[in-house]
Design brief:
- The chain starts with a helix and ends in a 20-residue tail after the last helix.
- By secondary structure, it is mostly helical.
- Helix content is 84%, strand content 0%.
- The longest helix is centred in the middle third of the chain and has 38 residues.
Length: 487
């Protein structure tokens, strides 16, 4: 069964480095916002979001699919890693060429054109990063994954700060981004080859085609997830321009760490859940129920705390970014829903229902941009945030229904009743104390929530102990020995 101690350790690596990166990134963003006009800041943000979307398209879901197959067939990892790398490189070349043709056909302004071409160049090296990520997830080498991502991001931000301080252009900043991606790719591939596995390319071509076919639902889910979270930004750019995009992205940058919690949580439980489901579905069901309970206990107070501190956090930005506060408050309330979705999504993918998982995410990918077209003209960037929240609710409803029908025939709503009562009391206490000081209000509200959790008996001591129970002996990839298989 998945062990919370292992997940917590792995998650701490990813989250710790991510939070450190985000802290530095916030400094970089605030400095960039002060040195650049909202239009230029929005242009740079638009380019990075475009790269994020292209990376999801080019990955074709191979990273997540590859991690699942590596867990299942760890003894054949050299051949699987070779397949994953081959497919990633070939698809990245195809997508890069297609993207270049589209960019040239659209003929954007000169600065944006240069930024997009550099983004496409960066994309090729992401194929190597994505391949190594599959290996790191399957082998549970999350420390190296986090470390190399941090090194790449840190080098980019240091270079960017130097460029901004010296009055350089955003094009030069993008050159620094390309260099940081290359550095991260080289470090990752060297570590995988030295410590985990080689890359065997001795396999027939038809096996690559089979892998592409099997990856399709994963690809749809990956692309749809990015469109759900970032598609509204393209609508915002179309309807309101780069300045409004810059404001929205500033709020999203503070919301992003909480999105990472779900992504990191999803990645770290994925190998163990895959092994559990393959060999002991009942253990997988028991583990998932505990995770739902933990989400109910943690996610609601996160949303309340960030809402109380929203005005203080957004006060660090310069003039022109006053509308960040309502955007952040709207976005943060999607966190509890997203965390439930992450568990459901994992369940569907490890139980060979990846097509159903993909459909659930497509609902959000369609809903978020469409709702943005309806709301942005009236309330601007806040409309883009509201569109994301509503679309997230819609996709989790569908996903929950599918999981109940096929895997866990129990409702999770009951798990949220007492935490919701505790959160309501917490929020009331925080609003009263907000008149004195936002930080005091946040601290007091958390104390009140802890008292209410004890008073309402939201969680039992035995449940906490079971989460931290000692894991079984593990094999070389960090998965229990009894789960290791050969094809």
């Amino acid at each position: 069964m998945i062990n919370f101690r292992t997940v917590l350790r792995n998650s701490s690596y990813l989250l710790g480095f991510r939070l450190l990166s985000r802290l530095l990134s916030v400094v970089f963003l605030i400095y960039a916002a002060s040195k650049l006009t909202p239009e230029l800041f929005g242009t740079l943000s638009f380019t990075l979001v475009t790269l994020e979307l292209i990376n999801s398209v080019g990955d074709l879901g191979i990273t997540r699919y590859g991690a699942r197959e590596l867990v299942r067939f760890w003894d054949d990892r050299a051949k699987l890693a070779g397949k994953i790398l081959s497919v990633q490189v070939v698809t990245s070349l195809v997508v890069t060429a297609a993207g270049l043709l589209i960019v040239l056909a659209l003929n954007p302004p000169a600065v944006k054109l240069q930024l997009l071409i550099l983004a496409l160049a960066s994309f090729f090296f992401y194929s190597i990063i994505n391949t190594t990520e599959s290996v790191f997830i399957a082998s549970q080498k999350f420390f190296f994954s986090a470390l190399f991502s941090f090194i790449g991001r840190f080098s980019y931000m240091v270079f960017g700060l130097i460029v901004l301080a010296s009055g350089g252009s955003i094009v030069l900043i993008m050159w620094g981004f390309l260099a940081s991606v290359i550095l991260e790719a080289l470090l990752r591939i060297a570590m995988v080859r030295a410590r985990i596995t080689s890359f065997s390319v001795r396999f027939p071509t038809h096996e690559l085609l089979t892998m592409l076919r099997l990856c399709f639902p994963f690809a749809v889910a990956s692309v749809a997830s990015v469109v759900t979270f970032r598609g509204n930004m393209f609508v915002l750019d179309l309807l309101k321009g780069d300045a409004e995009v810059g404001v929205f992205n500033a709020a999203f940058s503070m919301f992003a760490p909480f999105v990472w919690i779900g992504i990191i949580f999803s990645s770290t439980i994925f190998p163990g859940l895959t092994a559990d489901f393959t060999n002991d579905p009942e253990a997988a069901r028991a583990s998932c129920w505990k995770w739902y309970h933990l989400i109910a206990l943690v996610s609601l107070p996160i949303a309340v705390t960030v809402s109380l501190l929203a005005g203080t956090l957004t006060g660090f930005f310069p003039a022109g970014y006053e509308d960040i506060k309502p955007i952040l408050i709207i976005l943060i309330w999607s966190v509890p829903i997203t965390l439930i979705m992450d568990v459901d999504f994992n369940i569907l993918q490890v139980s060979n229902q990846e097509s159903v998982a993909a459909r659930s995410v497509v609902i959000g990918a369609v809903g978020s941009p469409l709702l943005s077209f309806a709301l942005v003209p009236f309330i601007g960037a806040s409309g883009a945030a509201a569109a994301l929240l509503i679309a997230t609710i819609a996709k989790v409803i569908y996903c929950r229904y599918q999981v109940r029908q096929s895997f866990l025939n129990r409702s999770v709503i009951g798990l949220f009743v007492r935490p919701a009562i505790a959160t309501a009391v917490m929020g009331a206490a925080g609003l009263i104390a907000l008149r004195l000081n936002p930080w005091f209000a946040a601290f007091l509200s958390l104390v009140v929530f802890a008292i209410m959790v004890v008073a309402l008996k939201v969680v039992r001591l035995a449940e906490i102990k079971s989460l931290f129970s000692k894991p079984a002996a593990t094999g070389g990839n960090g998965v229990d020995e009894k789960y290791r298989k050969v094809p």
